[in-house]
Amino acid sequence: MAKDLSMSLLLDFYGEVLSEPQREAMDLFYNGDLSLAEIAEITGITRQGVRDRIVKGEQIVSELEAKLGLAGRFGNVTKTVNYVVERLNDIEKTYHLSVDDIREAVKGLDT
User: Fold this and answer.
1) SS3 for 97?
2) 20 backbone dihedrals φ, ψ, rounded to 5°
3) What is the per-residue DSSP string for 48-85?
4) Residue 111: is its pLDDT beyond 60?
């Protein structure tokens, strides 16, 4: 069973809607980096039972992301914020302006 690391992010966003056994299995698999056999030993169920919980959990969080898109939007906002911070750092270095100077200049645009 290949690990899709984007599932870890989806688990962060939508994990609370999963049953506790599904959330636990997915957390141990994706965040704990445990094998199905290791999770089976911890939870006291079969390896196939662990796999079933993970597959069902993946299906649920994937469907939620397809409908709501929260993780995708979060990624876009993060990229935009990082871009703005990089540009502010460039301005600060190039023009020797502090962030406070920039903030003050932007306030004048409101009027």
Assistant:
1) coil
2) -60, -45
3) HHHHHHHHHHHHHHHHHHHHH-HHHHHHHHHHHHHHHH
4) no
